[in-house]
């Protein structure tokens, strides 16, 4: 549903809702996957992001997101300088991603301590984003709700175990998507939730026998 | 959100309120946000718009590429033939916000970043001249929001989909309807102002040099604001545009859909494809890459 505040907004650092605000949100999402500011990041820019990204500050916006700045934070402009002070070493590369991708797409490969992640995200207009891959698994996430990213053994009962644990903790699920790279390996579960889950719920999920990893992602878009 | 401006005019007139007031009541009735939340959100937008105009007027900002900046200050120095008038102030405000946008400052995308100068230029210019309260301006932003919503639902608010008519054109239509209402015009007059503004921007292509939101975007926000001002003046004088606003908006959508891709934000046609446009884009993009490497 369109709100008056979607049309008169968002409040954002210019110059482009798709190339700046959306890019920042993809950075924020990637940051959440490693649980804080990464120490190392490879930012690959595809399509229009590669062609006009620097003039639009796409590079600064992505790095600002990685540092935890939101699209309305004026520090986005100086994020490349601030990255060094924050201990983030970032490399940019123009690339042509294989497959069918929106023109405004970036792949971010990042690490923080022992956590690593890769994410492919597209900025699809007016600051809205779609995350299309996490760690090589195909996903479809808009970042408009808090999310749980769970990697679990591709076995019967894995989803049921997670949902019943969430239900016990009082978390309401808005959407569920499960995908895998091959049968019988690991699967990725994406749960979009009405409210962020509590630390206790995260511990309970991590203790489930089939679950390999649990990552909580805050809402990055409105 | 309602998808017909004609209908919104009828409903607002029946309720004896402005389109802006109707828009606020309607969204509250939809149940996702309270009136206080909506008004707080619009007040914040108003504050950011004011901040952006103030930040852009001194003229010390340059865009990321260095191609634009400092032009709002020229109008603000009160030297032109129309200096000191509402008209000049509106143009300066629109340029100021768009220069701030190009320099990676904070703006309100209303409806988009590329068209962000028009609404603050017009509304804040009118506010200063007519001493309008913030409460009145917040209702004006609600009017603009409803109009933008109708344009989004019936046509498009994206230059990549509909050309510049969908960005600065839509912004001019929003500012025209809002401007009429904050000055006390009727919902019907506001509807005509929307039609009058949008008919003046039909067919406008999106042709930014190098694909950057700089040239002609900054200047097009000023001319978009001028068109909004013309529409406000005509509508308040009682001039009625013979084609209803919804049909003008539908026309914009239809023209956008049939517009060649060169004219939809791809920098493949229009001013971007002129010899000078190509040269400037090439020079500046090379320069950005160099400074990017050394940073």
How many distinct beta strands of chain B? 1
Number of helices of chain A: 7
- Shape type of chain A: globular
Total tally of structural domains of chain B: 1
Task: Please bin the fraction of helical residues of chain B.
Answer: 55-70%
Q: How many strands, what sense, and barrel or not for the largest sheet of chain B? A: none
The CATH superfamily of the largest domain in chain A is known as: D-3-phosphoglycerate dehydrogenase, domain 3
Tell me the total number of β-strands of chain A: 11
Describe the structure.
The complex is a heterodimer of chains A (222) and B (295). By secondary structure, chain A is an alpha+beta fold. Chain A folds into two domains: 4-135, D-3-phosphoglycerate dehydrogenase, domain 3 (60s Ribosomal Protein L30, Chain: A, 2-Layer Sandwich); 147-217, Alpha-Beta Plaits. Helices cover 27% and strands 36% of the residues of chain A. In chain A, the strands form two sheets. Chain A has a six-stranded mixed β-sheet. In chain A, a hairpin with a 2-residue loop joins strand 4 (104-112) and strand 5. In chain A, helix 2 (17-33) runs parallel beside helix 4. Chain A is globular and about 50 Å long. The mean pLDDT of chain A is 94. Chain B has a single domain, classed as 2-methylcitrate dehydratase PrpD (Orthogonal Bundle). The mean pLDDT of chain B is 94. In chain B, helix 10 (187-199) packs across helix 11. Chain B is an all-alpha fold and 295 residues long. Chain B has helices spanning 5-15, 19-30, 35-56, 71-76, 86-102, 118-130, 134-154, 159-162, 168-182, 187-199, 217-236, 245-257, 275-294, and one strand at residues 106-108. Classes of the chains: A alpha+beta (222), B mainly alpha (295). Chains A and B meet through helix 1, strand 1, helix 2 and helix 3 of A and helix 2, helix 3, helix 5, strand 1 and helix 7 of B.
